[in-house]
Amino acid sequence: MALVTPLDPNHDPETKELAAFFNETLGFCPNSVLTMQHRPAISKAFINLNKAVMANEGRVTSALKRMIAWVSSNATGCRYCQAHAIRAAERYGAEQEQLDNIWEYRTHSAFSDAERAALDFSLQASQVPNGVDAEIKERLYQHWNEGEIVEMLGVISLFGYLNRWNDSMGTSIETGAVDSADQYLGKHGWEKGKHDGSVY
């Protein structure tokens, strides 16, 4: 069981209406959002922030945003968010070769220099202490404009919140997310860990 029990999807009508967003991104409403419903102001604010962060206003694609989220979640160790991010990357059209080789993004030919800069930014921004430095800035500016960098950091920061929420909560992971994680991350040792529904 998670630290706090997720509420029924019908618990808060406004959250339910906003949460339709996740049917596109994941194919289901995440248990994390269902748990946030214990305080509906949090669930609604979170969904609206998520929608704003994931909106595409530059060249940062939906697939790249989800790969940025995966790198961030991998850096912090949140297996729940790793699975969600790789599933959403798949659903938003990430190339098969990228999905299969996300662990090797720094060296694999499926990733461009612009994507590597974005993913390294995610890695360094997600570490404690923070690793963003002049070199990261220089590489970002070789490929991306300031608005696009803001979009990227929005994703990284959103997943910083989610990584802490879900790892602390021990949020039970949904079957669809497990399937995607097993397919793309299992060969590197991904497992449900505390998110298997039986830890707390």
UniProtKB/TrEMBL annotation:
Molecular functions per Gene Ontology: peroxiredoxin activity
Residue ranges of domain Carboxymuconolactone decarboxylase-like in the record: 40-120
One of the Pfam families matching this protein, by short name: CMD
Listed PANTHER family: CARBOXYMUCONOLACTONE DECARBOXYLASE-LIKE DOMAIN-CONTAINING PROTEIN (PTHR35446:SF2), SI:CH211-175M2.5 (PTHR35446)
Protein name: Carboxymuconolactone decarboxylase-like domain-containing protein
